[in-house]
Amino acid sequence: MEHRLPLLTGGARDAPERQRTLEQAIGWSYEFLDEPERRLLVRLSVFSGGWTLDAAEAVCGTGIDVLEGLQTLMENSLVRRIDLADGTSRFTMLETIREFAEDRRDAFGTDDRDDIERRHAQRFRDLAEEAEPHLTGEDQARWLEILQREHDNLRAALERAERSDDPDRLAIAFSTAAPIWRFWQSRGHLAEGRDRLRRPVAHPAAQRRDTARARALRGLGGIEYWLGEYAPMQASYEEALAIAQELDDPALVARALFDLSFLSAVGRMEPGAGVQMLRQALEVADEGDLSLRAQVWIGLGVSALFAGHPDDAAEPIERGLALIRRSGDRVAICDGLTALGGVAFVAGDMDSARARIGEATEVAATSDSPFVIATVILPHALLANHDGRARRAALLVGAAARLEDDFDVRYPAAGLAFFGDPGDAARAALGDDDFEQIRREGYELGLDEVIALVTEDEALRS
Description:
The chain is an all-alpha fold. It has a domain at about 5-110: Winged helix-like DNA-binding domain superfamily/Winged helix DNA-binding domain (Arc Repressor Mutant, subunit A, Orthogonal Bundle), CATH 1.10.10.10. It has 27 helices and 2 strands. It has helices at about 5-10, 15-20, 20-30, 35-45, 55-60, 65-75, 95-100, 110-130, 140-150, 150-160, 165-175, 180-185, 190-200, 210-225, 230-245, 250-260, 270-285, 290-305, 315-325, 330-345, 350-365, 370-385, 390-405, 415-420, 420-430, 430-445, 445-455, and strands at about 80-85, 90. It has a two-stranded antiparallel sheet with strand order 1-2. It starts with a helix and ends in a 7-residue tail after the last helix.
């Protein structure tokens, strides 16, 4: 991003006086400050998009009274405080002021600059790691909002690491990016998340075969799966498994085996090999890792369904769902419920199919995640086609396409191949012209309207 100060202080000679003198005004305010406040202002320029008082004290507080310094900076209009609706406060500075301060970061020595950047990176690595278990759980909405507020700081920390040749700083980048891939997925930033993991993974100085790299590869593979980039997904997952085996880390091996089993779902591995990997994952997984064990059981059930054995599918999915309800993983709960709905659909038990999809919809509607909402849309469309409501199915197909375009949502190819594309059945029932018109109407729906469309379906309550 180009600096904004030159845009405001340079240019035509007839530019407004306030623009041409902005840098001088900032410089005057800066010179008016005492040395501790100058140092604090320069240190605060490490933040992007604002900061909390706690963050400022953790990152910039060495040898400085941060609270008193912030008060002085606000009195001099160099920093602003914003009181948020949830009762918390954030501090910000205009981008032009931040750039002015950033340009003076070396004035207090490169050691001070490096220390502040290191503290900033560690602060947001710790935030990412704290957020990870909540990104699929009951407190998902709050943590998605926290990460959204700090997204620019996370980006800034990762970008500084990418420019470094220091293996330790790159390891911090791994430990920042990998835990929040579900955030990028939930908020429609999958392509950005992929790039922010691929760059450090490919960095020549970041090739240590350790846990941090294996976790980064797992996160990268997850993003590549949902983007439909199956060849690089396979490479990421295979390297993650190899590292986990080299480290002889059973927990890491179990998760890597589970990840790699998805190759069978996208046609890059024989189904039997995928089932074998799931069984191996179950053997080595920690008994206390309820989320992983649940997902493996659900995977075994779905594999049985797709292999044409629906009678063998319900029991492992039910077993996994019972475990996952104890962990509170919303994404996996939706997966389990929709999988059971699929089993019932194949068996012709439409009442059970509707009940399962209805329950999944209730969970999805409270998730604050377009991705989780997307997991129930096509099951709704399948049910609508079965019930002879082709117009509703076409609306849902259009809504699904909009989520795909806006939020990088991709629908698993294995499910579409097994159940069929609901758009094909709706088109056959309506004709091309009517289908396209209704599909366009669905495409124009906003997220809240899509949620209403799937939650207010009376057929699921009958």
